Structures are given as C-alpha cells and as structure tokens.
Amino acid sequence: LKTLKFMIIGNMGDGKSTFVKEITGQDVKIGKGSSSCTKESTMYKMDDASIQKIEGLSKLSARIEIIDTPGINSDKENICDTTLQILNQLDEIKSINGILYTVDMSKERD
Fold first, then answer.
1. How far apart are alpha carbons 70 and 51 in whole angstroms?
2. What are phi and psi of 49, to 5 degrees?
3. Which of 6, 53, 66, 94 has the greatest count of CB atoms below 10 A from its CB?
4. Rounded Cα–Cα distance for residues 73 and 90 (Å)
C-alpha cells in the first residue's frame, strides 16, 4: 500500500489537535485556553477502522498519516522559530501529499 501524508497547520487554538484526535481516534493531547499543548510536530497513523469511518477514504487503498504541528503563533516571541520548525520537518519528510490549514471560524475578525 502507498502512504499518504497530510500536515495540519494553523494558529494555536484553531482545532488542529482536535481534528487529528477526531479522525484518527487516537489519544491526542488537546490544549485549553491560551496555552499550547503541541510543542513539536507529531505524526499519527490512521488505523483501518478510522479510515473506514470517513466516506471515500477506504477507496484510496492507502495508509494515511496525519502530522499535527504546533500553532504558528504558539510562541508569540518566536513565530519565526515555530514556522522554521514546521518547514524543517517538511524537508525531513521529503514527500507530503497535502497540507490542511485550519482556521477558527468562531473568532471575530479585527
């Protein structure tokens, strides 16, 4: 089977880890309030049961890996450091099939 890899990026508190927890069924630590829980990127492999739950995924005949990343704004002093960490991981992975960018739609625009 081929392996499809997807990276989840977005700001702190936008629901990246919650999304990963929901689609993988794994025990993913979720942050609360203004503290970031994800300090470094972590890969989660979807098992067959999780893949079967999502319409259309089973037709791909592939392993699926989801990479949860720290919020881009999780370290307000060093946004560049967080972004560099994510870019370095992308370079290490070599092959990625998609990037999902999360946005918290409940937040009001400035």
1. 24
2. -65, -40
3. 66
4. 18
